Amino acid sequence: MENFINNTRQPFTVITNELLQEETIFDSATQKLCYLYLYSLKNCSSIFPSHETIAKAVCCSTSTVKRILKELQKLKLLEIKSRPGHTSIYMLNDYTEVVQNELGHNKLAQDELGGQLNLNHEVAQNAP
Fold this sequence. Notes:
By secondary structure, the protein is mainly alpha-helical. The protein is about 40% helix and about 5% strand. It is built from six helices and two strands. Strands 1-2 form a two-stranded antiparallel ribbon. The protein is globular.
């Protein structure tokens, strides 16, 4: 699965209406919000916010963030590279591709993918 890369820095994040408005593979609003927060950082060469930073951004506890990140990893939306003594590096997988791979060509996947551009990108992992 490919990861996001976009070296263009913009003061906003473009999110498809389908991801915000339609039924998704997320189990909770907190999962969706954590994914969207990390997605908003995808313009960086690598994504490595602390659990505390994510918790403040999405208004939840650090223990909730840890649980949600593991859940996103199980959903294959996120890959986590642990770095003992440092924050982990997070690599986002494209939501549309995950939905297509996980759900095949059933109705939900077709609804999610209908008319969208393929936004597969890769995050370059630079050591901070």
